Amino acid sequence: DDVMALVSQGQLRYGYTDTGDKGVLVEGDSTNLVVGTNTAPIATSGVDVTEEGTGPMVGTVAHRLTLNKSGANENGYWAIPNDLLDEDYTISVWVKFDTATTVNLRLWRGPYTVCDGIFTGNAGEWKLCRVTSTNNQAGGAVFLRAYPGPRISQTAGESLIVAMPQMENSTVGTSFIPTTDAVASRDRDVVTIDGSFVDPQKGTFVIEFGEMTPSTDDQYLFDLSPWGNGGCGLRLTKSGIFRFFCYDYDSDVIGLNGDWTGSERKIVISYKAGSLVMAMDGEVVRTSSAIDGGFAMPSSDNTIAIGSRVEGNMMANTVISKFKYYDTFHDVDTIINL
Fold this sequence. Notes:
26 strands
């Protein structure tokens, strides 16, 4: 797990999982539709806007939104090009709560609200606030709006700080893309390692990663050899199931029900001829003894892609903090200790 090499860009990008562990950031390509992310948001009459240091990311500028009167619907906003499609959009703003410990985040296309989210936090902490919805409203100008305090019951003098606004044409929000005088894009990340160490007869994969959310396509946490030539890998399906596959054998690891986002996961998969054991977060979730002849793993001239398919698509939008392989099989008693 120390020999990762970047394929498509000049350097590895690092981020943090939701429990604070540093890892390789793996994301698909995306575009930020907010133009001028360091410029001050435009304010309605009931809000004063002042520059307030930097945001959570180096080189960004933060702004304080202060309510100058009590009432409702006062906000700071960023204008968005209004040639939007009837597709999925995700909006994101980093918020540092202060005397206002609630923020209402909206994508608004006059006179309609496209999507809306309410977030709370402790004074002094930065929090990423993100909302996803389909832009299915006809209308005019488009705005990303941040309302200090409860939108329908605001109190004069309350304030909070905003930074790093982002709007993406996707159901999955990605890490911040700064813009100046035009929209800006970032290419996908592709991380690979040499797969020659994988034993086709026995072995164990361990992968730890941060928050993931099902999207419109499967997301691959790792993939060994190109799809169509056999291989094995682990993916989060668009229906919300972690699925391990190997050649013509396909097995659900676990079905995820309810609100499971925002939680770091650890998945361990161990195999040998005729046996498969899988564990999630220290608990065995699947065993099988009906796999004749093992998995017929690919030959040693293959590559492992981490965070995507080997071809570079179906990205896992997350932070991967650990990827390990052991050339031994671990049964139900020992797999939970890895």
